[in-house]
Amino acid sequence: MGLAAVETKVEQCTERTEESGPHKVVELALERARIVARKLEEGIHRVIFGQDDVVHHSVVALLAGGHVLLEGAPGLGKTQLVRTLSSLVGGSFSRIQFTPDLMPSDVVGTSLVVTTSSGNKDMKYRPGPIFANLVLADEINRATPKTQSALLEAMAERTVSVEGKPRPVPKPFFVLATENPIEMEGVFTLPEAQLDRFLMKLVLTMPKLATLAAIGARAEEPEMPAAVTTPEELLDVQATVRSIPAARHVELYAARLVLATHEPDEVRYGASPRAAQSLMACARVQALLDGRAAVAVQDIQDVAHVVLRHRLVLGFEAEARGLDADHFIDLALAASPVE
Amino acid sequence: MSQQRQRDLRVVVAAARARLARVAGRESLRRRGIWVVVAAAVVGAARPLYWPLNGDAPLWSGAAVALGFFVVSAMVGFAVLVLLGRRARPSELLSARAIDQALSLREVVASGFAFERDGRHGVLESMALDAAHVAVEGFRPTKHFALPRLRPRPRALALGLGLAVVATMIGSYHPALAAILASPPTSDELNAAASLEAFARELERGRGAEARDEREARDRDRDGRSEAKGSSRSKVRSDLARKARSAANAARRGDRAGAMRDLEDLRSATRDAAREAAALRAALRQIASALQVRPPSAGGAEPSGDPSGRGERSSEAARDAADAMRELARQLREREDSEGDAASPAQRELRQLAEAVARTRSLESGGGEQRELAQRLAEALSRAGEALGAGDREGAARALEEAARRAAELEAARAEAQRQLEAVARMLQAAGALGRSMQMAMAGAQGIDPGDEMSMGMAMMGMDGEGERAGAGAGAGEGAGKGMDRGALARALAARLAAMGMGGDPTGRPGTGPEGHANNWGRPGAGIPTTGAVRDRVEVSEGDQAVLAIQGMGQNAEPTKEYRNVFPSYAAQAEEAIGDEVVPAAQRQVVRRYFEAIRPGGAVQGNP
Asked: Which pLDDT belongs to residue A155?
C-alpha cells in the first residue's frame, strides 16, 4: 500500500469514525508512519552508500523529534546525509559551519538598524540559520562554548530569545551536529550538560570495501531525491510515535538501565533522567518501524548505545584502561533485569 | 477483546509458566546434580561419625548403611534440587516473554499480557492485546518448551558411580575391621571360639530338654509352679548361652575388647548363679540342723578350700532336712500313741519347728524359684508348729510330712541348678581358653617378646586348672564362684609370671616340660617348664597349687624385666583378689603374705 493510498484511507476512516472504529484509524496512522520512515530510509540510501545503522538511527531520531550528534572523520558523508534528509523531508534547510570566531548572533540572528519607508530608523530582527526545519551544525566543536550554548539552548527549548523576545523555531526542528574527533587543536569540547541535549550520538565508521568501491565508482554528485513527506506529515508521524504505549516492565527496564550506568566506579557521571525519556522515545520509533503497537525491551536495547553513548562521563581509570562508553553500556545492559 | 480471549491468554501464560517450572527443575537437576552426588557421597562416607555400629554388628552392615545413606541423601538432594528449581520458576510476565522468545517475537505476548494485567485498555493497548492473542493461538508449551534430558553423560555417570563406590568403602568402616586388619584372629582364637560356641549349644540343648520336661510337668501340675521354676532356670541358661555365643562371635570378628567384655559378663553371671546355689545348700543344712534329728554334715556353711564332694554334701544336707522332718513326724505319731509324757518333748519340738521356720524364712530372700519353694516349706512348718502347739500331734505330723515333700522339691531344684552349673563350668573352661588365646594374640600385637607370651600362657593355664577343677567338682556351685575369684588371683599371678620371664606354651595349653606338672589341670605328661624347686612334683590341693608353684618357680629364676616396671600392672588385681571374701579364709593370709613379700622394697623383693 502506497502512502497516498494510506492517506486516502485515513481520511476516509477519519470521516467515518463511527463505522470504522478507532482501531482502524490508529492502524492506518501507524501504517502511514511506517511508510514515511521506510521512504526516508530508502531515499537516504539512494545517496548514501553503507552506514545502515547511521541512516536508520537518523530516521529514528527524526521521527522521535530529537537531535543527532554525528561523529566521524572528514569525508564519511555527514553533510551529505543531512542534506539528503532535508531534501526528503521537504522543509527548510540551513547549514552552519562552526568556527572559532562564530558568534551566537550568527546562529540565532540579530537585530539590524534599517530605514523604514518613512525614512525613520528602526531595529529589525533578522533570523539566523537556526530557524529552519533541518539544521546542519557542522563541526560544532570548533565554535566557542558561548556559541555552542546558543545552539544547544535552541535545541532544548525550541525557542530563541533575542532582545528579550522569545522566537520559536519552526516545526519540525531537527539539528544534526557533526564533530571531528581527529583534530584536537583549536577545538572546544562540548560540555557534558549540553551533550545531553542530543537525542543520540552516531558514529560514522569507515565503509567496507564494497561500499567504498561503489562510492568511488560514482562519477557525479548524486541528485538530491525528491521530498517523500512534508513537515506537517512529519509532525503527525511524530505524534503517532509518541502515542505508542509501553508496558510497565519496559518503562522500569529503561529506568534500571539508566541507573545501571551509574554503577561502575570508572564512570564519573552516568546517564541523566533525560536519557530515560530519550530511550523510550527512540524505542517507540523502533516498535513502530517493527510493526508493533507496543514498545519492547529489545527496542530499548537496540537504541541503548546510541542514546547513552554521549551521556556517560568516564573517569580517568576508564580512559587509562582504554575503555569507552559502549563498554559500560554493555555492562549496564547485562546488569539490568527485565523484572 | 472478549473476556474469553483474555482468559485464554492468561491460561496459555499460566501453562507456559508451569512448563517452564518443570524445565527449571530439570535444568537445576542437570546442572547441579553432580554436586548432590558429591554431597551424598560425603554423607555416606561420614556414616561412622554419626551412625557408629555396635561391635557385634556384621561387617557388611557398615557398607549397607553407608550405601543406604548415599542413596537416600542423593534422592533427597535431587528432590530438593527439583523443588528449588521449580521455586525459581519465572514470573507470569517472564513466561510471556519466554513465549515471545519461543515464537521469535518481540514482546508481542508479553506486552499484551502486561496491558491486560495492568488494566490498560486504550486503543493501542487493545491492539497489542489482540496481537498477543493471535500470537498464542496454537501455542503448545509442551511443544515449544522441551524438557531437558536427564540422562547423564557417560563421564558424569562414571563419576557418580565412582563416588558411590568410594563413599561405600569409606562408610563401611567397622570398629572390628581395623582390629582384624591390624591383628586378625588367630587359629587358636577361632578354635577356642568354636569350642565355646559348642558348649553354649550344649547348654541350650539342655535348656530344650528342660523345656520339654517343663511341658510335661505342666501337664501334671496345673497350678503353674513348674512353669515358674522352669522359666527361671531356662532364662538363666539362655542368658549364659547368649553371652557365650556373643563372646565367641566377637572373638571371630577380631573384636577382642568386646569378647573380653562378654567373657567378663559371662563370669559374673556364673558367679551369681553359684552363690545362689551355695546359699540354698547352706540353708537346707541349717534347717536340718534346727530340727536336730541328725547332726548336720561336717564343714558347715563356710566353704572349705577343697571343693570336692561339696555337691554331695549339699545333696546330703537336703536329704537330712527332709529326713529330719519325716523322723519328727514319726516321733510325733509315736508320742500320740503314748499320751501323758508329751509336755516336755512337745516344747522342744515346738522350738525346733520355730527355728526351722526361721531358717526357712531366710531362704525367701533368694531367687524367684527358691523363694516360692521356701514359702511353701515355711508354711508347712508353721502349720506343723501350730498343730503341735494346739496338741494336735497327728496334724503336726501330716504338716511335717508335707514339709518334707517341699524340702524334697527344694532339693530337686537345687540338684537341677547343680547340673546346670556343671554345664556352665564346662563352658567356662572353654571361655578361659578363649580368653587366654586372645590375650596371647593381643600381647603379640603389642610387641611383647615370645618369652612374655609363653609366660602369660603358662600363667593363664593355672587359672584354667582352677576353673576346670571348679566345674568338675561335685560342689560345682560354690566351686565355680571360688574359681572365678581365683581367676582374678590367677591374673595377678600371670602378671607376676610374665615379670619373671617364665616360658610356656604360647597357645595357652599346658606346657610340655621334661617333667610333667604334678597337678591335674593339664594333659597327662604336660607340665610347666620351670627351673629350680618347681620341677619337683607338687601334691597340693586346689587353691594352694598356684601359690606353691609360684613360690617354687621363683627359686633360681632370672627375671627378664625390671620388676618395678611390671609390679603396678598386677598390684590392683592382687588387692582386689585379697579383699574378696570368696577367697578361702584359710588361704587369705598366704596370698597376702605373698603379695606383701613381692612388693617393691618388700622383705624378699624379687625373690618371694
From this structure: 87
- The angle that helices A248-260 and A273-289 make with each other, rounded to 10 degrees, is 130
Find the angle CA(B599)-CA(B600)-CA(B603) to the nearest 5 degrees.
Answer: 70
In the predicted structure, residue B550 carries a pLDDT above the cut 90 = no
Q: Is the pTM of this model over 0.80?
A: no
Closest CA to A231 of A31, A40, A71: A40
CA distance A194 to B359: 123
User: Given the C-alpha cell 520509533, which residue does it identify?
Assistant: A285
Q: Which of A249, A289, A297, A301 should one mutate to test binding to chain B, selecting the residue with the greatest count of B CBs within 10 A?
A: A249
Asked if the Cβ–Cβ distance from A292 to B124 is below 8 Å, we say no
C-alpha distances (whole Å) from B558 to each of B531, B563, B607 are 10, 11, 10
Phi-psi region of A324 (alpha: psi -120 to 50; beta: other; left: phi over 0): beta
How remote is the C-alpha of B152 from its chain's centroid? 49
CA separation for the pair B510, B335 (Å, rounded): 63
So what's the ipTM on this one?
A: 0.81
Least CB-CB distance to A23: which of B94, B97, B123? B123
Nearest chain B residue to A296 by CA: give it: B107
Mean pLDDT of B494-504: 41
Listed in sequence order, the DSSP H helices in B254-342 are: 256-291, 310-337
Nearest Cα residue to A174 out of A97, A69, A104, A38: A69
C-alpha A188: how far from chain center: 22
Residue B382 pLDDT more than 50? yes
3-state SS of chain A?
Answer: CCHHHHHHHHHHHHHCHHHHHHHHHHHHHHHHHHHHHHHHHHHHHHHCCCCHHHHHHHHHHHHHCCCEEEECCCCCCHHHHHHHHHHHHCCCEEEEECCCCCCHHHHHEEEEEEECCCCCEEEEEEECCCCCCEEEEECHHHCCHHHHHHHHHHHHHCEEEECCEEEECCCCCEEEEEECCCCCCCCCCCCHHHHCCCCEEEECCCCCHHHHHHHHHCCCCCCCCCCCCCHHHHHHHHHHHHHCCECHHHHHHHHHHHHHCCCCCCEEECCCHHHHHHHHHHHHHHHHHCCCCCECHHHHHHHHHHHHHHHCEECHHHHHCCCCHHHHHHHHHHHCCCC
- Which pLDDT score, from 0 to 100, does residue A253 have? 94
Chain A, 247 to 276: residues with Cβ < 8 Å from chain B are 247-250
pLDDT digits (tens, 9 = 90+) for B58-79: 778 888 999 999 999 999 999 9
